[in-house]
Amino acid sequence: MSYEHILVAVDLTEECDPVIKKAMALALAGHSKLSLVHIVEPMAMAFGGDVPMDLSQLQQQQFDQAKEKLEALKRKYPDVKTGDSHLTYGQPRQEIHNLAKEHHVDLIVVGSHGRHGLSLLLGSTANDVLHGAPCDVLAVRLIKRPEK
Ligand code: AMP
């Protein structure tokens, strides 16, 4: 059984390489369409929604930087061009689920840090995306490199 449309969620850090590579291998084996998504989280959300200053310029810069990074990723992995790439504002879980439904995605691929301790309590995007997902979700284990 293979997937028709795989959606890879990327945080645009260097950690997205193993996540994309795993998704690409699956897409190649199953002749699946492969799409990318990055969600820019509204800054006001990070500050708890009540910020006494105008963040719109900073927010625009954040969006433009994300756009450049996403374009660079598409150049690095030309196979990803078989699908679409999405860049939107919002909350990752909600936006990824909505996109998956709209674009008939049957597998979402995310990275997972295998957290423990306090960070486990705080939760992770992988966990968040898994809950209520409209399709299968693959969590690619990200192994932390030892610090030099
Ligand atoms: P985190 O739990 O935030 O460390 O992220 C784990 C994984 O969730 C990443 O490897 C990505 O696959 C996905 N992810 C995190 N943040 C975003 C984002 N803003 N947009 C899309 N995917 C994300």
TrEMBL record:
Compartment(s): Cytoplasm
SUPFAM superfamilies: Adenine nucleotide alpha hydrolases-like (SSF52402)
Keywords in alphabetical order: Cytoplasm
Domain of life, per lineage: Bacteria
InterPro entries in UniProt: Rossmann-like_a/b/a_fold (IPR014729), Universal_stress_UspA (IPR006015), UspA (IPR006016)
One Pfam match: Usp
Keyword Hydrolase among UniProt keywords: no
Domain UspA intervals: 3-141
PANTHER family per the UniProt record, alphabetical: STRESS RESPONSE PROTEIN NHAX, UNIVERSAL STRESS PROTEIN A-RELATED
Description of how the protein assembles with itself and partners: Homodimer.
Family: Belongs to the universal stress protein A family.
Protein name per the record: Universal stress protein
Lineage: Bacteria, Pseudomonadati, Pseudomonadota, Gammaproteobacteria, Pseudomonadales
